Amino acid sequence: xxxxxYIIINVATIFLIQRGAIQVNLGHMAQGDVVAxxxxxxxxxxxxxxxxxxxxxxxxxIACANRIQTVLDLEPDxxxxxxxxxxxxxxxxxxxxxxxLSYNHNDAQAVSQLNFRVQxxxxxxxxxxxxxxxxxxxNLLARFYDATHGKITVAGHxxxxxxxxxxxxxxxxxxxxxxxxxxxxxxxxxxxxxxATEQELWQALEVAQAKEIVQGKAGGLDAQxxxxxxxxxxxxxxxxxxxxxxxxQPDILILDDSASALxxxxxxxxxRALKKLVHKMTIFIVSQRTSSVRTADNILVLDQGQIxxxxxxxxxxxxxxxxxxxxxSQFPKKGGH
Length: 337
Ligand SMILES: Nc1ncnc2c1ncn2[C@@H]1O[C@H](COP(=O)(O)OP(=O)(O)OP(=O)(O)O)[C@@H](O)[C@H]1O
Ligand SMILES: [Mg+2]
Description:
By secondary structure, this protein is an alpha/beta fold. The chain is 45% helix and 18% strand.
């Protein structure tokens, strides 16, 4: 539309000046009249162009509004009861009973037949190759998805029995991809607990081994975080997201491959600091490294969506082939640790 408009304008201008020149030459018109006429035409044309782009904008706006409306019209297929009114079924922190999930109804199952029980305060390691279902397992725990089969209880209640928001209040989850939001370090840390005090923030930072990062930035807690946290390194981002999960003092802490960008020494310090916390948390450590999970009370070994081994490090070293394979790939038999 725009090229056509400009051609018409320019052709009209040429026509006007050419005819005007002849009329002036013949003495029918004054020069000022031609100039005035040209100016009026230009003004009209400018308004026409604006009108044209307005029509385009309105059309775009309508299309966008329709897209938004379809999103708003979408009904979530998860339902939440108003209040938690069933008594606790057990005194376990977490229990999975025959849990399976396929993301889309026709897809193969991402995890199947998961069975395990976790006592309050235990540390659970989850280990397995890429795509073995580790993230899927923790997503089920936080009810990001509903299990296709089976039952999951958290603190004795079925995850489906919790009113909206109450389950996630109990769980601090550090996602596999460390995401920070634009703002300040403080605004990022207060995400789960808007009224967290200065002291609580520093405590969380200390446990997450992120204290030096904040101290090293001009402005400390009020240092700027750019979009997606791109002014921090991968490891720094990871530690800050761990601190963010710790600030709200959850009952269950999930670290989904949160040590992947940390060096071994920092990883160790982090795990030691978590152990020392007064507020006893049940901790899930998802990792590809045996060194991150070997001190866990119970280790779940996942392979192609199934639990193929369960127990502590020594037990698995004696009984579980998949675990041995992972271990020896990281610590070759000869040459020791
Ligand atoms: N949102 C999704 N929709 C469909 N399939 C998915 C989705 N998320 C994961 N999957 C599938 O589920 C399986 C398990 O994925 P999951 O993310 O749990 O693996 P993982 O053990 O966390 O791997 P990694 O170590 O790479 O993080 C994979 O085969 C994957 O293709
Ligand atoms: Mg994962």
